[in-house]
Amino acid sequence: MNKPTKKGGGKQTATLNGNADLHRTRIDLPARARTQIIERLNQSLADTLDLKTQVKQAHWNVKGQHFYQLHLLFDEIAGELEEYTDMVAERITALAGTALGTCRMAAAASRLPEYPHNLADGIDLVAALSDRLSMYGKTLRENIEDCALLEDAGTADLFTEMSRNIDKRLWFLEAHLQG
């Protein structure tokens, strides 16, 4: 991923790592900045889709003393992640890019580690999901900084909202591992 540059001019048809051209838009962000922002958004879309499916994996397979409580919590987290995928994809297209959000695209691009398929104990699932939410939250905060450098307060705000909620969900999960 390219480091953000503060100002970028450029033509209307910049490419996104060869994946797609920018569409025409009247948005006043320079094409070069939008290209870099869209790259971050598409990376976030892949990570978010992957994380959502990992949380659903935990939701479907949780066992143990806290089954019902964790089953519901995991489903709530997955539902929020589903909302984020839509928000991120719509921001990509609002910036005149192309959202790259199929399951195969997400699997190929996700930075999250593969989810262990053999976990079922509630606490083991909580620990695995906590690790992944922590990684995901870190990348969201990096994206906030990058978007601020690229002078896109709208996308920075989107990542801020997601980060705040992911931190809250991480707190909910980690509470099961403490005490």
Quick tags:
mainly alpha; about 180 residues; single chain; Ferritin; about 65% helix
What can you see in these coordinates?
It is a single chain. The chain has 179 residues and is mainly alpha-helical. The chain is built from five helices and no strands. The longest helix is centred in the first third of the chain and has 31 residues. About 8% of the residues have low confidence.
List the helices and strands and how they pair.
Layout lengths: L30 H31 L5 H28 L8 H7 L12 H28 L3 H23 L4
Helix pairs in contact: 1-2, 1-3, 1-4, 2-5, 4-5
Could you provide a short overview of the structure?
The protein has 179 residues and is mainly alpha-helical. It has helices spanning 31-61, 67-94, 103-109, 122-149, 153-175. The protein has a single domain, classed as Ferritin, core subunit, four-helix bundle (Ferritin, Up-down Bundle), CATH 1.20.1260.
CATH topology: Ferritin
Q: Residue ranges: pLDDT <50 for 5 or more in a row?
A: 6-20
* Shape, principal axes of CA atoms: elongated
Helix content: 55-70%
Give the tally of β-strands.
0
Number of contiguous helices: 5
Percent range for β-strand residues: under 5%
What is the structural class? mainly alpha
CATH superfamily: Ferritin, core subunit, four-helix bundle
Q: How far from one another are the termini?
A: 40 Å
